[in-house]
Amino acid sequence: MFESAVDAIIEGNLTALEALLAQDPHLVKTRSTRPHQATLLHYLGANGVEDNRQKTPANAPQLAAMLLESGAEVDAIAFLYGTSTTLSLVATSIHPQKAGVQAALINLLIDAGASIEGVLTAAITNCRPAAAETLLQRGAPIDNIIAAAALGNLPLTQSLLHQSSQTQREQAFIYACLYGQSEIAEFLLDQGVDPTAATGMGQTGMHFAADGGHLETIQMLIQRKVPLNIKNKYGGTVLGQALWSSEHEPKPNHPAIIEALENAS
């Protein structure tokens, strides 16, 4: 019955889900027998569970409301990406975003009492700016330098600088570049942050700026003589990243970025 209920969720079948919950009211708190031990509500995050079930139907908010009204625990923990709540899964998943229901799901879960602790930074570092904006609107605090830098809050970035570790400052620089926060990225460089610091996939701030189409940030980094030939885990230089992104995820400034990088090489 649990598997049937999961199928109903990813198919957006409200009628089938309602019938299953009526047949077995305890189903709403049942957990998957898989290692992640997800509840039905977790599957609405469309994130980290079985690959074929990472889907978000257009009526996901109605499905979530039904589960919550039936007694689903809003902050239940599943063993996905370490440990995750439904809200953290929703806020970091591409599928609710593509379905156009990410904000509605976030608001619904917060209205039901979901904890927002740590979720803002998770949305930022998973490249979900719209989710981050929704969380901000719902009172999520900017409580670390990574979030402050990515969201363009220079005064807060400055005040948090000396409370932050070297790794946090490097991450703040990387995500400032990712979101095109040139002034903050330059401030962090002035504070001695290593511009060649990278994520686990070898992506530096400059790789991310090129990927995101942030011409002003790229121009600043070139002027600051940030190395151009550092390779990510795929073997791509910054120019290689810009070329790949211009083909697969094009942004208006990619042609100008490619020209600037070629001229700087």
* Number of strand segments: 0
CATH topology of the largest domain: Serine Threonine Protein Phosphatase 5, Tetratricopeptide repeat
Total number of helical segments?
16
Helix amount: 40-55%
Note poorly predicted spans: none
- Give the overall pLDDT as a whole number: 96
SSE series:
HHHHHHHHHHHHHHHH
In the CATH scheme, the class of the largest domain would be: Mainly Alpha
- Give the termini distance in whole angstroms: 60 Å
Q: What proportion strand? A: under 5%
Using only C-alpha atoms, the radius of gyration works out to 21 Å
Give the CATH architecture of the largest domain: Alpha Horseshoe
Give me the CATH superfamily of the largest domain. Ankyrin repeat-containing domain
Largest sheet: none
- How many separate structural domains? 2
What best-fitting shape do the alpha-carbon axes yield? elongated
